[in-house]
Design a protein that fits this description.
Strand order of the largest sheet: 1-2-3-6
Number of helices: 6
Structural class: alpha+beta
Strand content: 35-45%
Order of helices and strands: EEEEEEEEHHEHHEHEEEHE
Shape: globular
Number of domains: 2
CATH topology of the largest domain: C8orf32 fold
Length: 262
């Protein structure tokens, strides 16, 4: 997968902040569920960037819609939210910037939300399908295994899409589910959406793996009964399964280098 210029972060408070620039305004609404909603009234959204920063960690987002939801995963502390507009080339002007003091209630619950890169809701066919498949299963590891098997047996890797994907690409859960194909970003987003919909905290992670050289996306999944996060790579395993090669669902963390976590 080409390296995506998509970056994200999380905040916890119950305040509503309104930033203004001329007749335009940006509303930032954060909750104790670990997600921030940003609304901006501007026609040329493709020229708008949102930067959410905590100390040295910084995530940069493209605004695709007038209202977007982003995760707040960098822990407690002061976050800086900055709205920028592209002037020309790589030059941006700051429209507004504000600090938000964040308190986190449950760090794992952050990874249950519907956010920009993992947009899901209960009305989706993908979610309905998975809830049907895990009905009656109480153990989280067993639920994870069922959903994992569904994806690696039903979703094929789209090599053409991987060759033309743009930096601001966002996965669409229903399209991936219906087309039964996608790139690593799609696999990781679909897997995360399905797991989150059945209350299993799941991270979408971007970075590098020893399996190949390209920028990659995979998941880390929390097993509450074992109180641990495990690495799962449905993209790799789907390709192995198609070649009748045996695979283990749980991957070795040392084979993966995290750069971005959503």
């Amino acid at each position: 997968m080409k390296k995506m210029m998509l970056f994200f972060i999380f905040v916890f408070t119950t305040s509503l902040f309104n930033f203004s620039f001329g007749q335009n305004s940006m509303d930032i609404d954060t909750t104790n569920e670990g997600v921030v909603a940003i609304e901006y009234n501007e026609e040329k959204l493709d020229e708008i960037r949102i930067i959410i920063q905590k100390e040295s960690q910084k995530y940069v987002y493209h605004m695709h819609n007038a209202q977007e939801y982003f995760p707040l995963q960098m822990g407690e502390g002061v976050y800086t939210v900055t709205l920028l507009e592209n002037v020309s080339g790589n030059k941006y002007r700051v429209i507004s910037s504000e600090n938000i003091d964040v308190t986190i209630d449950n760090e794992n619950a952050v990874f249950l939300n519907s956010i920009q890169v993992i947009q899901w809701d209960d009305s989706m066919l993908a979610v309905k399908k998975i809830k049907q498949l895990v009905t009656g299963i109480e153990n989280d590891r067993e639920k994870i295994k069922v959903i994992y098997e569904y994806i690696i047996n039903n979703i094929e890797y789209d090599y053409y899409k991987a060759s033309i994907v743009k930096n601001d690409y966002l996965p669409e859960i229903e399209f991936i589910f219906n087309s039964k194909s996608g790139i690593c970003y799609d696999y990781a987003s679909l897997f995360a959406a399905m797991l989150r919909s059945v209350d299993i905290p799941t991270k979408l992670v971007m970075g590098y793996t020893t399996y190949f050289d390209d920028y990659h996306a995979w998941n880390e999944v929390y097993i509450s009964s074992e109180d641990k996060w495990i690495v799962i790579d449905t993209t790799i395993d789907a390709q192995y399964r198609q070649k009748d090669i045996d695979v283990n669902m749980e991957k070795n963390k040392s084979d993966y280098t995290n750069q971005r976590v959503y």
